Structure to design on (408 residues):
DNA sequence: ACCTGAACACCGTTCAAGT
DNA sequence: ACCTGAACACCGTTCAAGT
């Protein structure tokens, strides 16, 4: 974008590299991302990216942080819309927001979820992730306090919801949903339905 | 193993390469696997592996097929032991067997689950995977027939069990379980507990 | 039939030198 | 301050030539 690369200096190379990385990601998944190719797409020499990112992992990290921002926005927006609902219904809204984000931005989800390729600790990733977990826990605790949920372990419910949502999203990007559901092709709808059922089952 | 590489010809290069690949996998995950390094470890030139495997993906495929054999064995053994139990209890035994395999052989699980790196179609992988799904479906159908389960969708139950187990196993290899459960460190035990709870919930 | 070793087109990363 | 371009040590893969 806007890379009117008119001279020796690029001007907005950092952003251009992140854009190019996202394009490579969409073209061929995470292993198709190379610093050299991103540099070429940005019209710059192979060494240039290393002025802005210390490593390939750091470049992918930047994409991951962008992805996390979008996920956080999607969740915050869903929670705002659901503000008047009961705690468990807000929990449901949060789960649905995660699924929508993961299925509509599969490459972003792939980058965020594949540790080894990013530096999850440093940066804002860990903090943002923890914040989401805290929001989930808070909602479940509220649901217990209000009597909406009874006789459940909040930690167990939390992790099994998260693991189910994560599993569905991962099966989607790992090409495993394709072989399960021959019919509609509406994998997001199917995933949303299963999470809904699981949350319903928490109520007994 | 047994690679008394005494001359120009190796003798058991194919097996030696698969062994070396598994070691590389254990050392540094899937992206640490290189054909050249496997060749070096097997004491052979960089081009030699291509007499036995047409590509890096094919080499990883061979590891994946070995992994699938072990998974199938683990499941068959669990089902044999549970032969006298009710259909739903056999379903539970199958789920537990999957979790044990995935948590005790994380690198095997990683290779099998990461499409893009292997050729899941060709080979016996697809067939073995389909067989497991059929076994699961059969058990759930039997549980419905015998009245052990009522008022559930077999397809939904099937996929949500699978997605939960897959999600837990993936969170384990993606390093995401570490940040959730600070206590015991017994991630397999935790995963088994959550699957048990989910299966219990199917009974209402 | 199986393996070598050079070759090709790629990588990530570094670093002097240019602007 | 930012970028180039050559360099290094790696890749996957091919292929003539050796045994």
């Amino acid at each position: 974008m806007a890379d009117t690369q008119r001279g020796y200096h690029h001007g907005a190379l950092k952003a251009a590299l992140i854009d190019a990385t996202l394009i490579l990601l969409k073209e061929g998944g995470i292993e198709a991302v190379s610093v050299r190719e991103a540099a070429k797409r940005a019209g710059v020499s192979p060494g240039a990216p290393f002025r802005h990112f210390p490593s390939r992992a750091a470049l992918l990290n930047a994409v991951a942080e962008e992805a996390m921002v979008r996920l956080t926005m999607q969740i915050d927006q869903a929670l705002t819309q659901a503000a008047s609902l009961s705690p468990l219904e807000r929990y449901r809204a949060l789960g649905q927001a995660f699924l929508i984000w993961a299925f509509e931005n599969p490459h972003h989800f792939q980058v965020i979820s594949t540790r080894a390729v990013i530096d999850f600790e440093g940066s804002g990733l860990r903090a943002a992730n923890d914040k989401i977990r805290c929001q989930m826990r808070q909602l479940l605790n509220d649901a217990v306090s209000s009597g909406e949920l009874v006789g459940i372990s909040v930690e167990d419910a939390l992790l099994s919801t998260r693991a189910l949502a994560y599993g569905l999203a991962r099966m989607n990007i790992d090409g495993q949903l394709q072989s399960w559901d021959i019919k509609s092709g509406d994998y997001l709808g199917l995933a949303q339905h299963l999470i809904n059922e699981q949350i319903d089952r928490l109520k007994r």
Notes: The interface with chain B takes residues 29, 31, 113-117, 120, 126, 129-130, 133, 156, 159-160, 162-168, 170-171, 174-176, 179-181, 190, 193-194, 197-198, 201 of chain A (CB under 8 Å). Confidence is low (pLDDT under 50) at residues 1-6 of chain A. The two ends of chain A are 52 Å apart (CA to CA). Chain A has two domains: 1-54, 56-202.
